[in-house]
Amino acid sequence: MIHARSLTFAYPGAGRPSLKNVTFDVPEGTVLCLCGVNGSGKSTLLSLLAGLYAPASGTLTVAGIASPGKEDKLRGLSALVLQDADLQIIGSTVAEDMLLAFPPGLTDAEETARDMAARFDLAEHWHSPVHTLSYGQKRKLCLAVALLASPALLLLDEPFSGLDYPAIREMRAILANNRKHRLTQIISVHDLEPVIDLADSMVVLHQGEQVLAGTPQEVLDAIPAFGVRQPCSWQRGLGIVPWE
Ligand SMILES: Nc1ncnc2c1ncn2[C@@H]1O[C@H](COP(=O)(O)OP(=O)(O)OP(=O)(O)O)[C@@H](O)[C@H]1O
């Protein structure tokens, strides 16, 4: 579904590129775990995949839509869930934020949104002002709104950061359910522990370069050299042990 070929990108005015020569494929319905230390280029790559920027060189094709050239179409088929929920929430209440995901006047919009709120344990907060939600609830609201748009590609930037253990488990359950329904997902993390058993493939970035790519089993032995901690089960020689 995704073919990235020799992607290079530099922010306007930046001295050096934030992505260099990034090449990978993601089959439809699979989960790619994108990892690397702070500043390695994960968010930048997600922005290109979301159609927010175009590569300076190389080509990115998502479901047959190519960038550079068709970023507006890419934006229509993917949903990016940002690390900072406050940058993403635009409604003043949960209801308003969820209903803004639909075109005006769409029949069934409220019913669909309420069902999604219930799925994400947000039903009792339907009329709550968004600033009264907890950090974890705000993250869930952003993900719920992203899914309301029925994206073909879900892009998640550090979905576990700042979440407590129960919220991490809840987030995992949502991502696992998406995977069960064959939604293509790219999940950026610096810590692999909460996600590795859900990942079909991995790309490791370091200083904007793709240094490793393959299945978790192919990549995990080499990741410490790039500042990424191996999952505990892998360190103990147990391979990848599912959480549940
Ligand atoms: N808007 C911008 N303008 C200029 N440089 C930027 C901009 N955004 C990011 N960068 C630079 O691009 C590089 C990659 O940053 P990016 O945010 O993509 O990394 P990251 O792996 O997502 O980091 P983190 O884990 O800290 O979120 C960094 O050197 C960063 O300083």
TrEMBL record:
InterPro entries hit by this protein: AAA+_ATPase, ABC_transporter-like_ATP-bd, ABC_transporter-like_CS, ABC_transpr_CbiO/EcfA_su, ECF_ABC_transporter_ATP-bd, P-loop_NTPase
Keywords, in A-Z order: ATP-binding, Nucleotide-binding, Transport
CDD domains cross-referenced by the UniProt entry: ABC_cobalt_CbiO_domain1 (cd03225)
Tree of life domain: Bacteria
The keyword Nucleotide-binding is assigned to this record: yes
PROSITE patterns: ABC_TRANSPORTER_1, ABC_TRANSPORTER_2
GO annotations of cellular component type: ATP-binding cassette (ABC) transporter complex
Residues in ABC transporter domain copies: 2-232
Matching Pfam families: ABC_tran (PF00005)
An example molecular function term from Gene Ontology annotations: ATPase-coupled transmembrane transporter activity
Family the UniProt entry places it in: Belongs to the ABC transporter superfamily.
Protein name: ABC transporter
Native species: Desulfovibrio psychrotolerans
